[in-house]
Amino acid sequence: MNHTSDRRTFAIISHPDAGKTTLTEKLLYFGGAIHLAGEVKARGQNRRARSDWMKIEQQRGISVTSSVMTFEKDGLTFNLLDTPGHEDFSEDTYRTLTAVDSAVMVIDAARGIEAQTRKLFEVCRLRSVPIITFVNKVDREGRPPFELLDEIADMLQLDVCPMSWPVGMGSDFEGVYDLHANTLSQPEGPSREFMGRAIPFDGMDDPKLAATITSAGLATLKDESELAMGGYASFDVEAYRAGDLTPVYFGSALKDFGVAELIAALGQHAPGPRPQPAEPAAVTPERPDVTGFIFKVQANMDPNHRDRIAFMRLCSGTFKRGMKLTPTGHGKPIAIHSPILFFAQNRELADEAFPGDIIGIPNHGTLRVGDTMSERADVRFTGLPNFAPEILRRVALKDPTKTKQLRKALDDMAEEGVTQVFYPEIGSNLIIGVVGQLQLEVLLSRLDAEYKVDAGLEMAPYDTARWVSAEDPADLKAFMDLNRSSMAKDRDANPVYMAKTAWDVGYVSDRYPKVKFAATRER
Ligand code: G4P
Q: Are 89 and 64 in contact (CB under 8 A)?
């Protein structure tokens, strides 16, 4: 059977507090993957109780790890990739977004587009990832729908197409009207939730509708929806899939409004596995042999086992358990005997997986973020960059006998993409680099909890790092020889220029026009 069109691999992007956790839980609940709302949070707490290093997650109330949840509905398999929500984790999040075919953008109806939503949106735009918008919390007082739609259109430069419309918000909330199916989801009972029975009408002039909602509600709904249908783009699946138009659903994750519609929209409109950028040519899901790439590595998911899981996005072929795949650059094929598919409640052993699926591969450090895995070793996926760190620190070890453990820990975390590590050409102090402040806290907490290494961080004599290269190796060598005190190697032994100030980067790049100074390095 051809499974290339029945996978929906997506992520939810949002600003903290917009309702991502609640919506995730409801999607899994409606998708039949969990049986009680509340399990996602409960699961999170269990996990926290078991795992020391997630203390930070607990303290800061943010999600540091990203996981994969799979559910099946109406003959489709949905793979939901959870992205860490905090702004400091943009690098990790970026990589997760390289592994999805579409995204759901959750916006708080009272707040509109917030900083983190916007950042994550920009990442999606880089790869033309199609976006469905969910305006959440319409059961509470929010901003007028027109204001929200215009904000999305203006700030994100996207065509917007309202698919549903809220009948009032907050204390005036009377439900959500589906503009295409002409159905109304109404709040019921003391909790004012949606109980799952959408009422069908013959359009807004149906007398039944007038008997169902208040006359004020109906008048506003008619006026607003007429304006909305005339004033915004109509739905065009091609424009959506090209990332130029976003269909907008109004709803309430907490009270179940709009959740079923969102799943249906993902099923109907969201693309299945998209071709992935690669060399020598993009890989389409129809390609018969197995290819995939590692977008995340997570160590010590279970503190009792020093295993690490590499998360692979399958891009083509039918993966079968026991199959041998070759990681790029390592040469040796490895047999994958115990792949893991991530279902909501437990890890299950995967026998087969298809393009769009995510497979967890337990390993002892062989697999790295950015690795291509393939049967024939004749392809390399591109576009998983390393970002130049914005914060550099020198690691000071309190107990000098722990040097080996420290190196191991830093290497592990560099491999996971938590931090980057640089080895200066002169001197023995390791320099670590991160994109955001919070990663430093994660680093220290994990050094202590997992590796029993007591270390502190000191200011580094550098402010920024650039990967250097040149067409003629002689030019690069000349530059490196003259700047030895500012040179370091990254974990893969690539040369890195450590600059004292950003100004220095400009200065040296003017002086050495044949040398390229890159702020990202593609793996
Ligand atoms: P996040 O993962 O995006 O950070 O958001 P999360 O789902 O944790 O939701 C943030 C807060 O917003 C939670 O309240 C949650 O209950 C609430 N919320 C989410 N969706 C809706 C909605 O549709 N309507 C309303 N009215 N509230 C919503 P909290 O008080 O911070 O957490 P909790 O103690 O209630 O769990």
A: yes
CA distance 81 to 109: 24
Q: Which residues contact 134 (CB under 8 A, 6 or more apart)?
A: 23, 104, 105, 106, 107, 248, 249, 251, 253, 258, 262
- Report ipTM for this prediction: 0.97
Coil vs helix vs strand at 140? coil
List the one residue out of 22, 152, 134, 21 whose CA is nearest residue 85.
Answer: 21
* Cβ atoms < 10 Å from Cβ of 365: 15
What per-residue confidence (pLDDT) applies to 399? 85
* Cβ(60) – ligand 1 distance below 6 Å: no
C-beta 139 within 6 A of ligand 1: yes
What backbone phi and psi angles, to 5 degrees, belong to 249? Answer: -110, 135
Q: Between helices 115-126 and 145-156, what is the axis angle to 10°?
A: 50
User: Atom 15 (ligand 1): residue with closest C-alpha?
Assistant: 19
The angle subtended at Cα 184 by Cα 179 and Cα 185, nearest 5°, is 120
Q: Is 116 in the pocket of ligand 1 (CB under 6 A)?
A: no
SS3 310: strand
Q: What percent of the chain has pLDDT over 70?
A: 85
Q: Identify whether the C-beta of residue 266 lies closer than 8 Å to the C-beta of residue 10.
A: yes
In the reported structure, the alpha carbon of residue 137 is separated from the centroid of ligand 1 by a whole-number distance in angstroms of 9
40: tokens are 């996602």
User: What does pTM read for this prediction?
Assistant: 0.80
- CB distance 144 to 232 below 8 Å: no
Q: Ligand 1 pocket, 25 CB below 6 A? A: no
Ligand 1 center–CA 22 separation, angstroms: 6
Torsion angles phi and psi, residue 426, rounded to 5 = -115, 135
Q: Which two tokens stand for residue 449?
A: 């909890």
Alpha carbon distance 131, 244 (integer Å): 9
- The tens digit of pLDDT for each residue in 7-50 reads 999 999 999 899 998 898 888 888 876 655 455 554 444 443 33
Confidence of residue 53 (pLDDT cuts 50, 70, 90): very low
Report, in angstroms and rounded to the nearest whole number, the Rg of the chain calculated over CA atoms.
Answer: 25
Compute φ and ψ for 17, nearest 5 degrees.
85, -5
Residue 60 has pLDDT above 70, yes or no: no
